[in-house]
Every structure is written in C-alpha cells, then in structure tokens.
Amino acid sequence: MFRPLPAFIGLRYAGAQRRGGDSSGLVSFISGLSMVGLILGVALMIVVMSVMNGFDRELRERILGIMPHGTIYNASPDIDWPALRDQLEDNPEVLAAAEVWQVNALARKGREVTPLLVQGINPETIVEVSNIGQFLDPQAFAALGDPAQPGVILGRGIADKLGVGEGEYLSLIVPSSESDDGGRRAARLAGFVVADIFHSGTALDHSLALVSWPQAQALAGGSGGAGVQLRFGKMLESYWTLRSLLQQLPSQDFYGSDWSSTHGNLYQAIQMSRNLVGLLVLLIIAIAAFNVVSTLVMVVIDKHSDIAILRTMGASTREILLTFVSQGALVGLVGAVVGGILGVLGALTVTDLVAGLESLFGVQFLKSDVYPVDYLPSELQWGDVALVVGAGFLLSLLATLYPALQASRVQPAAALRNEQ
C-alpha cells in the first residue's frame, strides 16, 4: 500500500505507533499534551461565543420583544391617541403601534413598598407591539378593565418582593408632584387585584406593571405620560426611523425615545464582552499552538540521528520539512476537530447544565435584577464553529514551520558524529 514517506514518518512521530523501550513514548506524551491544550481552547471558545450569541438573541427577541423599539410622547391632554396610532402605523417602517399611558408609581402590600413603572394599555393593540401575552393567561387582559375590581399584571420580581400572589390586593401610589401652575398635586392612591404574574426571565420582571388605560390615566391625574409605542421592521435603525416619524408630525411638542437609549448600553456591553472574551480565548488557542512549537523542537532534537540517516538514504530537504509539518498538522487537525465536536456539545447543553447545577445546589447564578436574563442562554452558530476550528488548525500549522525548517537544516555528518 502506497504511503507518502513524510506523512508516514510524521504519523509515527506523533505517536500513532509506539514502540516500547525507546523515546517515542515521551514524544507521544508531549504531542498528546499539545493536542489536549488545543482541544480545550477550541471547545471553550465555541461555548463562549455561543453564550454571547445567546445573550444577543435574548436582548433582541425577549427583552425587546416585550419593550417597544420606540415610543412617541406628548404632554398635551388633548391628543387623540388612537388616531395618532393609526397615522403612525400607516408608515411602511412601522410594523405595529399601540397607545400607552406610563406612570412612575410605588406598589405597596402591607409594609412592603417597591417602585415600578405602571403602563396603561389597550389589550387589543399592545399584543401587536409586545409579546407580553406569551407570558400571561389569556384571560388576564380582560380582568384589567373590571370597573368594580380593577386588575393589575405584575412581574414576578415585584410580586416576590411584595409577597403578593394572584387574586390578592395591593395599592399603587403616585407620589405628590409639582403642577404646571407651580402648585402641588396630591398623592394619588388606588387599589388593585393581581390579575396575573408574568415571568419573562428578564429585568422587566422587577420593574413593570400593566393596568388598563383609564386606570393609568386616573393615577396620572390626566396629565402627561401618554404616548404611542412602536415596533419597527429594522430594529438597528430605530433611532433614525423615530426621528423621521417625529419630523412628519405636525406639532413640535412631540418627542420620543428608542430602545438604544434604554438598552443600548446593554447591547454594546454584550458586543464588547463577546469581542474581549473571544480575544482571550483565542490567546488560549495560540498558547496551545505554541506548545506545538515546543513539542516539535523537542522531537527535532530527539530525532537528530533519524533525520541524519534519512538524509544519507536520499531524503530531500523538502521531505524532511514535510515530515515535521505533517506531524504538527496531525496534532492540529485532531485537536481542532475533537475540540470542535466537544464545543458543539457544550454549546448545546450548557443552558441545561447550568440549570441543573442551580437546581442541585439550590443557588441561582444569574438574577434578572442584575443580569439581562435569569438563565444562561446559548445559541450555536455554525459559522462560528467553522471559524474557530479553522483558526485552531491554521495556528497549529503555522506553528510547525519553524521546527520543520530547523529539522530540514540538520547536517547528516555532524548529527551522526555527535551520536558516537
């Protein structure tokens, strides 16, 4: 069976075939260490990049799925908000629009008090802008408009802090504030029954409450806080789309904000963390490739006599060079491929693994009042896998060039004379 001489000898040096009683066992052991380092580096980088992809996905699909891409406000009490909603929704850049009335308030249950953002909504339009309905009972929105017992929908974080459950009562308080004429508005208080508790797994669980539009208007005292929430077709262009919409409105009293003003820092932090962590893990792969250099240098030193004998038997400089390149390429190929497989398995199971550890030890590693979500997300992208595996193999291949060049320059006479 025909086997190219450089690849055959390189395979033996890499430890595919061992002989007892000589130094090949040590060479194989050192090659194995280099391979293990490369495997761990590649696998770790794939898992880290998948986790960063997961955080990016959760921001786009979960957090910004509940919150709007942009909101337009006006402090005037005379705005026809349903008509304005229909006007904005006719814009081709706007996928959906919903009127909302926002009030900063305090929720109280017994002695427990917590601040929150109360949103007065229209159940028929809010589901077009937000996916909050995915986390609620289908009948929850209907309970908000009960005039006898007005309902409120709370995030789980708020409910846990207040110690309140579904069907129980709590009070919403809007503190006193300064009016337009310089006087003071009295604090407003209203009682609500908890219609439902949503758990989105995001920071919104600790800050958001939903009531009906009339109830929010009453809490606000009929002034300010009203607006139209918008969902855009191009999320990353929401700032420019919002500015364009504001310029098309007849009054200069309209103003707005988009998701980048509230969650833009989080988005930038995720992107920066992904780049920095990716760079650090890439350095781990580079260190593993450096181990390949040290391994092959030791092989060259150990195999001086073998190289000299091959040269005297007619092996060319090119064949000697390819012998050690093939050894390093084998280490790099096996390390990158096995690391890629382990990385894919890790990326697919890391969410369940962390959840299992949390359940086993009774701790929560991520909390949504500190982190964007309360679990470790992961999204495997095959482009990242190909990039990492290819980079690991390429670095290993480049690492073989210096030792291989040193081996090709061995002088047969001098090497054999030193062996005597």
Automatic annotation (TrEMBL):
It is a multi-pass membrane protein. Its main location: membrane. Pfam families: FtsX (PF02687), MacB_PCD (PF12704). Keywords: Cell membrane, Lipoprotein, Membrane, Transmembrane, Transmembrane helix, Transport. InterPro entries: ABC3_permease_C, Lipoprotein-release_system, LolCE_TM, MacB_PCD. It is found in: Cell membrane. Residues 31-218 form the MacB-like periplasmic core domain. The keyword Transport applies. Residues 279-412 form the ABC3 transporter permease C-terminal domain. The chain crosses the membrane at residues 26-52, 276-300, 320-338, 345-365, 385-405. Belongs to the ABC-4 integral membrane protein family. LolC/E subfamily. NCBIfam families: lolCE (TIGR02212). PANTHER family: LIPOPROTEIN-RELEASING SYSTEM TRANSMEMBRANE PROTEIN LOLE (PTHR30489:SF0). This is Lipoprotein-releasing ABC transporter permease subunit. It comes from Microbulbifer taiwanensis.
